[in-house]
Write a structure and sequence with these properties.
The chain is α/β, with parallel strands linked by helices. The protein has a single domain, classed as Rossmann fold, CATH 3.40.50. About 45% of the residues lie in helices and about 15% in strands. The strands form two sheets. It has a five-stranded parallel sheet, sandwiched between helices. Strands 3-4-5 form a three-stranded antiparallel sheet, covered by helices on one side. Strand 4 and strand 5 (about 85-90) form a beta hairpin. Helix 2 packs across helix 4 (about 95-105), helix 4 (about 95-105) packs parallel to helix 8 (about 185-200) and helix 7 (about 165-175) crosses helix 8. It is globular and about 50 Å long.
């Protein structure tokens, strides 16, 4: 049985548009934990590279760019805010241009190394050392959270979802932002990202052996949240 004092890190992994970000944010809110959107960090680095005109085939340049960047994540009205070198870029990192390139940028070992170190630093500030330390916990989501970033996470969830449903979700998300993309374009982009994320040599998208797999294809966001919470012991005092 998981006890409240031992559950410090909840890892939620899965492919793009499977519901990770919203589910993780809402679960964190229910538990009073910090929500860590690791994908937003890679998106911020991708945005910086695109703005600077860095060749996305130049791994060394991208690694240097990542290591020279300052990232900060805050909450405002329960919404995550992303800051890149002091600039708030929350909406800019969700652009189609960033989405088209983020899997390529995040596949480079040097970029991932820089971001993983920062993710662990964020977590350390919240949960303290392995011997005890500070109170608090995090819900982290991404593609290698349970396997690479936090292999010792007490709870690991892997979300799956049919490509057709993920295409629909992404289409509606872009539409709500006033961005026009055809379903075919979106499906192709998601398929490409799946291939890159699953087949990269460094930190591929994989289910952790002990992860609970949740298929979100026919679930509402609230049902996804409840399903994740059911994986936790009632001692977590969910409200």
């Amino acid at each position: 049985m998981l006890k409240r004092e031992k559950v410090r890190i909840i890892a939620i992994d899965g492919p793009a548009s499977s519901g990770k970000s919203t589910t993780a944010r809402l679960v964190a809110g229910r538990l009073g934990y910090l929500y860590l959107d690791t994908g937003a960090m890679y998106r911020a680095i991708t945005l910086k590279a695109l703005r600077a005109g860095v060749d996305l085939d130049d791994e060394k340049a991208l690694e240097k760019l990542a290591r020279d960047s300052t990232l900060r994540m805050n909450f405002e009205n329960e919404q995550p805010m992303v800051f890149l070198n002091g600039e708030e870029v929350t909406s800019q990192i969700r652009s189609p241009e960033v989405s088209d390139s983020v899997s390529k940028v995040s596949a480079y070992p040097g970029v991932r190394g820089a971001m993983v170190a920062l993710q662990r630093e964020f977590a350390s500030d919240i949960v303290g050392s392995a011997s005890g330390g500070k109170e608090g916990g995090i819900v982290a989501e991404g593609r290698d959270i349970g396997t690479v970033v936090f292999p010792g996470a007490e709870v690991k969830i892997f979300l799956t979802c049919d490509l057709k449903e993920r295409t629909k979700r992404r289409y509606l998300e872009l539409e709500s932002q006033g961005i026009s993309r055809s379903p075919d374009e979106i499906r192709e982009n998601l398929s490409k990202r799946d291939e890159i994320d699953s087949n990269r040599e460094n930190s591929p998208l994989l289910e952790a052996e002990e992860a609970v797999v949740v298929d979100t294809t026919n679930l509402t966001i609230q049902e996804q949240v409840e399903e994740v919470l059911r994986c936790l012991n009632s001692d977590l005092e969910v409200t």
